[in-house]
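P.,

For your records, the input lines for the assembly:
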Amino acid sequence: MLTMNDIAELSGCARSTVYAVLNHKSWVSENTRKKVQKVIAEHQWTPDRMAAGLVGGSTNLIALILKDVLNPFNSQIVEGINSVLRPLDYNALLLSTMDEHSRELEALKVARSYRVDGMIITPQQVGVDLSHLWKIKEAGEPCITFGCSPGIDFSYLDLDEGASTVRIVGYLSELGHRRIGFLKGPDTSLSAKQREDGFREAVMMKQLEYRPEYSGKGGATLKDGFEGAKKLFSLEVPPTALICYNDLVAAGAYRAAEESGLSIPGDVSIVGFDDIELASVFGPPLTTVRQPCFEMGQWMARQVIAEIDKKRSGEPVVTESKQFIGELIIRESTAPPRGKKYEN
Amino acid sequence: MLTMNDIAELSGCARSTVYAVLNHKSWVSENTRKKVQKVIAEHQWTPDRMAAGLVGGSTNLIALILKDVLNPFNSQIVEGINSVLRPLDYNALLLSTMDEHSRELEALKVARSYRVDGMIITPQQVGVDLSHLWKIKEAGEPCITFGCSPGIDFSYLDLDEGASTVRIVGYLSELGHRRIGFLKGPDTSLSAKQREDGFREAVMMKQLEYRPEYSGKGGATLKDGFEGAKKLFSLEVPPTALICYNDLVAAGAYRAAEESGLSIPGDVSIVGFDDIELASVFGPPLTTVRQPCFEMGQWMARQVIAEIDKKRSGEPVVTESKQFIGELIIRESTAPPRGKKYEN
DNA sequence: CTGAAAGCGCTTACAG
DNA sequence: CTGAAAGCGCTTACAG
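Structure tokens returned:
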């Protein structure tokens, strides 16, 4: 690997001149500028950011700490984030936690070890020790969280989780459903909790039948959805509609319905969350709540950068939160319940 | 941020002792080891990898240069890669090229600027200038490519693209299809080319009707599939079966079929490639070729690490390729053609 | 424009 | 175990 010294030598000028060319200092003559750039291009040389970061104090690295990237919802967020990082010459260090506490700690450690300039994280937020997040806050490191981290003043992206769920329940009850099941998300997820709270509230409000067993196993994967739905479908009095934590969970419910010989929406209506691109080609197309994931990613990225800039210029960092509103997309997985359930 | 010096001071010993503790040198007494580790844990300190990399010559960073992460197929590969990198303490710098030449160049530059230890790349391989890849090879940098890069001796992951396509055509022709359409992938993709070649060959072999207009618009996204399929469906004599570059393209074809009032597989059979997790909940469930993406990611990761280790120890790097075999998964999107096409 | 110097936080090698 | 020294490839500040 060539160094800045080599480039200087090759182009016959001083190292400081090479540095000046790289950083567009005005005092460099057109002539030498070209000469230096030619040598740089020929050798495809770039300054070592590690070395630059060491002295300059910034690595242009942003840690992306997500649960996984297998959910298309998260992939969209990643691309949204990248779309703003790239033009600003920031880069993403992708770390997945698989929704495990120990891996979240580990990811944070890795992020620190690379001296990232900032991070965007989807942390576990409910019923877990949050002291690792506290330490980030105390250290004053730019950090944006997906969803509010209770008690810690980070900038965060907010979703109208409860309201969306209430809207879904309202819609289903208008269709005539009285027995609505709920496949809740991971226990440690705040959005899952908020959705569940919204669900409980709406069920009460609408005076629907509430049975504890209608709140099925939590989780965020297709497999979780399959297992949770299987259980609900095998109840003596099964729900006629099912609200799922996300579209992947809904997909699992589709599979469970098929295995149980239930038709959608004939025997059971199914609603998802996220509106991933493929939801529209599910069989039948999935009714779901659209989240503007790409924009959500963009907002988080812009926000970290803003905090990084503030920190660098010594200004006080004022945290912000932005609420994104879900939109109910009605497709064909929902319909009025049949008169005589499962009797055919 | 604390430094190693600070840690030494805080634990009342020499910097070299802290270093020794970190690197498990045997000569450190149990007592001081514990003392140092306590201080490290208290302050959540980790050595600065940038600084360490600067002198030690390795960053433990692997560049992942993919087209995008929006295709669940790629997400699986990413998770497969991460699953082997993480336990070995390597980390992924994720760069997406959106299948644009300029962004591929840019990504390579970014990778170089961070002095990554190695890279895994899905490059454009057909009809483009490959000199940037050549330079990587010349520089002796560990690099694994997804698919063979013509003329450049990288270790690469090989797929039996042609054979898979031949298998699909065989299957469709057994069902009785004589007019088979093909939605080819991106022009710059080698796998797309190989699939197309396989398709041509198989169509000849089986003496099926070949029409140039049956080879539809290339691309890798749902939108591409939609547009390509739309065109094929509006032909005077449309194909009765459609082979799609990947499952996302197939999803686009599903939408096009719906818009065109065609039923799957009644009016047209559709086959995809990849077997993404959601293919089984498509309406109808998609017949497709399963690729072991997670394992593919794992293989590539193991291979870069192997090359990095070889390079470090001064051994000659011997490139390898490994072929992965696709498996035709027959679901419900394929059936014999109807006697009288599109007539009723 | 040049040139020399200091320093970022580590690793490496070595004398005690 | 300690301690001092050199150096990785940059940035920063400054005298000429």
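Two observations worth noting. Chain B touches chain A through 49 residues (CB under 8 Å). Confidence is low (pLDDT under 50) at residues 340-344 of chain B.

Regards
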